[in-house]
Amino acid sequence: MVEKSNNDNSCNLDMSSNDNTEPVVTKDSITEKKVPVSEAIKYRKRAQVAEKMLTEMQDKVGSLSDELKETEETVKYLERKQHINSLLAQEEAIDLDAARLLTEIAIESMDEPDIEETIKDLRESKPYLFRSKHSICASAMPANEYIQNNEIETAAVSATQTGNRADLLRYLRIKRKKK
Predict the structure, then answer these.
(1) Distances (CA, A) of 43 to 20, 37, 95
(2) Could you give the angle at the alpha carbon of 63 between the alpha carbons of 62 and 68, nearest 5°?
(3) What are 22's strand-pairing partners?
């Protein structure tokens, strides 16, 4: 039996009775409850199973947490890669893979990565990776096309004026080449 005095906080356990019951100490300490040994064993087994399940669940939560971190890192990497690809496409990169790799290497060495600035620096340092900007004042019709049109007109005029078969065939050959 468990005895507890009200003036001190010590508990005394009296195991003199051998009647297959275990004493249970409650907060009141004045009342005493006896539980059969078979029930105590059953409760212990249930507690052990619950502790084992708790340990398994904690391990599972830990592994799922690690998997979540890996997935978040993968998503972050893929989003950054897509952003780099879109900016390089806007800048008209010739070799997208090489330009992206050089950009990623430059970004990894930065304390605060700035993708746009890195791509501008890459364009200045390695212009051969990008297409050159088109000139604004491009002509509406290329010069060689104008010359060909002039040649066709000349051949057509000579064929109609002379009526010669050779001039007519020359006109038809020039016209066929143009198409």
Answers:
(1) 15, 10, 70
(2) 95
(3) 35
Q: Residue type for 27, please? A: K
> Residue 137: inside a domain, yes or no?
no
- Give 43-102 as a 3 state SS string: HHHHHHHHHHHHHHHHHHHHHHHHHHHHHHHHHHHHHHHHHHHHHHHHCCECCHHHHHHH
* 56 and 123 assigned to the same domain: yes
What Cα–Cα distance (Å) separates residue 19 from each residue in 11, 13, 77, 107, 127? 21, 15, 69, 77, 94
User: 7-45, pLDDT tens digit by residue?
Assistant: 444 444 444 445 555 555 555 555 567 778 888 899 999
- Report the residue count for the chain: 179
90 and 60 in one domain? yes
Q: Global pTM?
A: 0.47
Give the percent of the chain with pLDDT over 90. 39
